[in-house]
Amino acid sequence: MGPGYRSPVSSVLLTTLCFAIVLGSSCSAVSIDSADPVTTTSSLVVSAPTDLESNEPPATATTALSEATTTTETTLTLTTPPWLGSRVLPTTPSGFAEAQPTPAELIDRRLPSPDPLAPPADDAFSFTISELAGEPLQRSTWSSDCPVPAAQLSYLTVSFWGFDEQPHTGELIVAADQAENIVEVFRQLHAARFPIEEMRIVEPADLIAAPTGDGNNTASFVCRSVTGGSRFSEHAYGLAIDINPFHNPYLRDELVIPELATSYGDREAVLPGMVSAGDDVVTAFEDIGWSWGGNWKSLKDYQHFSLNNR
């Protein structure tokens, strides 16, 4: 039967209920549509006020709604494209991969967050600060050739909200004397529910992997040179952080990094995960004295925040 069909019994019941208004009661008619399930990698069930406009799902999500008298239960499903991270891009004579049109699945990118660390026990912000040693140090890109000793770096874990609207636990390596400041930044982003897709330590394999142009890891310490140069990057000192790189690409002339993030070169329409002037992300970093690469003149590095504005 069609979605507009109402049985005679339902009509009688509805009439009976509404007649109760005369006696001081109230009634409402509820219409519930159902959708077929899809293959998923992450799901969410939340309760929220019955305001569908303020809970509008992303275009790529599948949503099922059920109405009660005071709340709406929303199930949000996000799916990772099966090809993500596997399609190697051609490179230019400069050694960089060629910029490509953004795939339709990533134009408004909202993917589930992986959980290499156990998620938080609740919605409250949580963090840890410890010395960089043991397994985190071994997984990292640090070596004796890096410009800072490991003793000057700290290992952090912080809570963050994913695009799946669930809390997750991320990890960062940062300069030890900036650790408390960085925790405060992510405390503010957590309070603002700014979505982050992934936050994990960059590993040596990441530095030599063939370019796929679709990475989106929020990270700080990476022992490497600046993009297109020979001096050490601020990342090699733990004094820079890249936030949602795919949503906030590096742009210089024809160079786009990540290479599939070309649609995010348009900064007019601000989508979830993007950083923009004066927003919660920029403000949180400005509060600790860090600068944003989105303000640079010769190039734009929308993902990049650093202590020394480099």
**Silhouette:** globular
H/E element sequence:
HEEEEHEEHEHEEEEHEEE
Q: Give a short account of the largest sheet.
A: 3 strands, antiparallel
- Poorly predicted spans: 2-73
Strand order of the largest sheet: 1-3-2
Number of strands: 14
The average pLDDT value, as a whole number, equals 82
User: How many distinct domains?
Assistant: 2
The N- and C-terminal alpha carbons lie at a distance of 63 Å
Number of helices: 5
Which percent band covers the strand fraction? 15-25%
What percent of the residues sit in helical stretches (DSSP H or I)? 10-25%
Helix/strand-derived class?
Answer: alpha+beta
Q: Calculate Rg over CA atoms.
A: 23 Å
A few lines on this structure:
The protein has 310 residues and is of the alpha+beta class. The chain contains five helices and 14 strands. The protein has two domains: 8-78, no CATH class; 104-306, no CATH class.
Please name the defining characteristics of this protein.
310 residues; alpha+beta; 2 domains; 3-stranded antiparallel beta sheet; 5 helices; globular; disordered N terminus
Account of the 3D structure:
It is a single chain. The chain is an alpha+beta fold. It folds into two domains: 8-78, no CATH class; 104-306, no CATH class. It is built from five helices and 14 strands. The strands form five sheets. It has a three-stranded antiparallel β-sheet with strand order 1-3-2, with no helix packed on it. A three-stranded antiparallel β-sheet has the order 4-5-6, covered by helices on one side. α4 links the parallel β7 (198-199) and β8 (217-218).
